[in-house]
Amino acid sequence: MKKIMHYLRPYVSLMCLGLTIKFIGTLMDLALPWILSYIIDDVVPRGSKTGIFLWGGVMILCAAVSILGNISANRIAAKVSRNTTEHIRHDLFVRTMRLSCAQTDRFTLPSLISRLTSDTYHVHNMFSMIQRMGVRAPILLIGGICVTITLEPVLTLVLVAVLPLIALVVWLVSRRGIPLYTSVQNAIDRIVRKVQENMTGVRVIKALSKSDYERARFDEINKDAVRCEQRAGMVMNITSPVMNLLLNGGLTAVIVVGAFRVNAGLTQPGKIIAFLSYFTIILNAMMMVTRIFVRLSKGSASGRRIAEVLEAEPDFELTERNHVDNGYHIEFDNVTFSYNKTEPNISELSFGLRHGQTLGIIGATGSGKTTIVNLLMRFYDPDSGVVRIDGDDIRGIPEDELRKRFGVVLQNDFLMADTISENIRFGRDISDEDIIRAAKLAQADAFIREKEDGYNYVLTVMGANLSGGQKQRMFIARALAGNPEILILDDSSSALDYKTDAALRSALRRSCEGVTKVIVAQRVSSIRSADLIIMLDDGRVIGKGTHSELMKNCESYREIAETQMGDGIE
Fold first, then answer.
1. Are residues 81 and 17 in the same domain?
2. How many folded domains does the chain comprise?
3. Domain boundary residue among 265, 292, 310?
4. Most exposed: 92, 195, 366, 499, by fewest CB within 10 Å?
5. Are residues 169 and 279 in the same domain?
6. Is residue 484 part of a domain?
7. Cα 23 to Cα 340: distance, rounded to the nearest angstrom
8. pLDDT at residue 473 greater than cutoff 70
9. Comparing C-alpha atoms, which of 33, 275, 32 is closest to residue 154?
10. Sorting pLDDT into bands at 50, 70 and 90, what band is 566?
11. Does residue 569 carry a pLDDT above 60?
């Protein structure tokens, strides 16, 4: 929570102003019952109409100051809470974008989404509640007790006897509430995960008529979240009825004792009326304290979840480059890696590519093809071995410098709801001429110009108004637009017809001679002209060489080639 409270520092002066205004307005509220008591017990018996109007005017003035003060203070509180939450959400998003893939896997995407949304919302409510009621409730509570002591010390003893019991209830309930609200937020993470899955796979769900099945699964997760919320709500809501019971019981005792004291001439009716008013103020103050603790419990639980992300230490340290003059542009030197650190996903992988050469990677699903790409771009660090670019250990290359070298098309790439040109540019300083050049190389220029607005044609979310092949060509154009020195195509031509795929490979050979290419493919035709082809099986290299060499020496590769392209193909 210290990390979260740090965001309030720039607004300390504004908060002090708001709290001062709130303090003055609250004192005006406390003055009203005392003035009423004075009018009833001292002014009315004298029959002074002037005094009644005078003190009545003072009451109106106090009420006006209280109302205007509370409105102004609440507006300041809303401004501080809004701006603080904006900065928290901004920094949380920036930190989320800089998390390593391993950290993202640990937090999970649904959890990061809920931390950016519902958790920041709870923190916003906590900041707002603390400023609006954090001053008002204690002043009303403590001030009310102090004033009642001056009015009726005997009756105040009844009130004082009740307060420790109330404080004990609030402490016990709030201590239990924070862990429960953490469970609630974890349940919300699961809801976000299920919604994300269903939105991503909505077409498959509809195509397989599994709407009822997915609805039932969502209902189960939703009910679990409801049960968590109910448990937390039941615990936190214990304070309200218990406090009502204690305070109203105390109020009844005050009325009974006060009646006897008035009847015995030990006090005055005006003081009893004022005391009852203060008792009501104290009751409302305690109810405010209850609401503060509920919001504080939610906000604390959410603040801790946000702080976990903000305080996550970068797990990729910048080391020495350890340069080696090996003559390779890309080199994997005896690399082994495991996602779960138990069973290797890549084992003892070694190969080297010179500038302008092409690497083809082929293998069954789950054999480790994409893992090689992840290691090359340093999304993960190898458990052992070294990955080098131009002889430098990539662990010694600054992230921005490293990533600028790549143009990448990943398996699960995405398109924004924006124009075609902006999707290709993707926030980079790329001219329109480079965008068109990249689109032509990616075989996308023809279909783009057929659109009604050409390169200004607006895509829907995830590019739903494009076909699968058109989207893949858009992804390739985006990768080529930045003039990368290393081009990575991870299963980027699976939706292309053979003619377009062949035209794309031919364009890449002609126009990207100096670019080192890494192509992950399921088709042998996409990689048959590569300078080096690696055949993977369960993370191990079972074949390495050119197409012709693998056709002779690797049975698995030959079977795939013959199945796809016919017997005897060379």
1. yes
2. 2
3. 310
4. 499
5. yes
6. no
7. 56
8. yes
9. 275
10. low
11. no
**Token output for 530:** 């590569």
Residue type at position 416: M
Q: What is the mean pLDDT of residues 301-308?
A: 87
Are 422 and 459 contacting, i.e. CB atoms less than 8 angstroms apart? no
Residues, the chain: 570
Within 10 angstroms of residue 393's Cβ, the number of other Cβ atoms is 18
The overall average pLDDT reported for the chain is 84
Q: Are residues 298 and 392 in the same domain?
A: no
CA 490 to CA 411: how far, in whole Å? 6
Print the SS3 string covering 263-322: HCCCCCHHHHHHHHHHHHHHHHHHHHHHHHHHHHHHHHHHHHHHHHHHCCCCCCCCCCCC
- CATH value at residue 567: 3.40.50.300
Give the pLDDT of residue 487: 92
Give pLDDT, residue 8: 86
Residue 330, SS3 per DSSP = strand
Cut 0.90: pTM above it:
no
Both 329 and 296 in a single domain? no
Same domain as 259, residue 399: no
Is the model's pLDDT at 178 over the cut of 70? no
Cβ(535)–Cβ(544) under 8 Å?
A: yes
Instruction: Based on the fold, state whether residues 303 and 336 are members of the same structural domain.
Output: no
pLDDT in tens, 188-205: 888 888 887 777 777 777
Does the residue 457 lie in any domain? no
Residues 263 and 343 in one domain: no
At 494-550, the pLDDT tens digits run: 778 888 888 888 888 888 888 999 998 888 888 888 899 999 988 888 989 999 999
Query: What is the Cα–Cα distance from 56 to 50, expressed in whole angstroms?
Result: 10
Eight-class DSSP state of 459: P
Helix (H) or strand (E) holding 537: strand 532-537
Which stretches does DSSP call E strand in 324-435?
Answer: 330-337, 346-353, 358-363, 384-389, 392-393, 406-409
Together in a domain, 143 and 290: yes
Instruction: CATH number of the domain at 257, please.
Output: 1.20.1560.10
- Name the one residue in this structure whose structure tokens are 């739903």: 464
- 208-218 per-residue burial string, b: 16 or more CB within 10 A, e: under 16: eeeeeebeeee
- Containing domain of residue 89, as a range? 2-190+226-310
Name the amino acid, one letter, at 483.
Answer: N
What is the per-residue pLDDT across 108-161, written as a single tens digit (0 to 9) for each?
888 888 888 888 988 988 888 888 887 788 888 788 777 777 777 777 777 677
